[in-house]
Automatic annotation (TrEMBL):
InterPro entries named in the record: AspA/AstE_fam, Aste_AspA_hybrid_dom
GO CC annotation: cytosol
Xref: SUPFAM superfamilies: Zn-dependent exopeptidases
Domain of life from the UniProt record: Eukaryota
Gene3D superfamilies: Zn peptidases (3.40.630.10)
Ranges for domain AstE/AspA barrel-sandwich hybrid: 44-125
Annotated protein name in UniProt: ACY2 Aspartoacylase
Listed Pfam families: AstE_AspA_hybrid
Molecular function per GO: hydrolase activity, acting on carbon-nitrogen (but not peptide) bonds, in linear amides
């Protein structure tokens, strides 16, 4: 599956649709070349591995007491380091990120995840290496 976004529910954005078309085209081109016998050399790619889902700060009644900090909003896939602003309380207090490594948040402040108690997802950037790939003809 391919998920391209972020994009609010019920909204059709031309830029996101264009990205989706490009990634689907690349996928179909790969399948065609593979089926034609094209050999693909080994490669290394960077990917983002989910570490954990992070909830909003809440009070003892389970009510949200802070929102995503403006400096984090719309910064999906950008590095988040220890001490960077994370949340902003309704009283104006900044709650910083406290972590021992740089993470890459995604799905930041997505409306569809409020009910799932998810402010964002922490990911780590890792490298995957693929061996060469070719069609095996029997």
């Amino acid at each position: 599956g391919v998920e391209v976004g972020p994009q609010p529910q019920g909204v059709a954005r031309a830029d996101v649709l264009d990205k989706m078309r490009k990634i689907v085209k690349h996928g179909l081109d790969f399948v065609q070349l593979f089926n034609e016998g094209q050999e693909f050399p080994p490669c290394t790619i960077e990917v983002y591995k989910i570490m954990e889902k992070v909830d909003y700060p809440r009070n003892k009644n389970g009510e949200i007491i802070a929102i995503i900090h403006p400096k984090l909003q719309d910064q999906d896939w950008q590095p988040l380091k220890n001490g960077d602003p994370l949340f902003l309380t309704l009283d104006g207090e900044v709650i910083p990120y406290q972590g021992n490594c740089t993470v890459y948040p995604t799905f930041i402040n997505e409306a569809a995840y409020y009910e799932k108690k998810q402010a964002f997802v922490k990911t780590e950037k890792i490298k995957l290496t693929a061996k060469h790939l070719r069609l095996s003809v029997s």
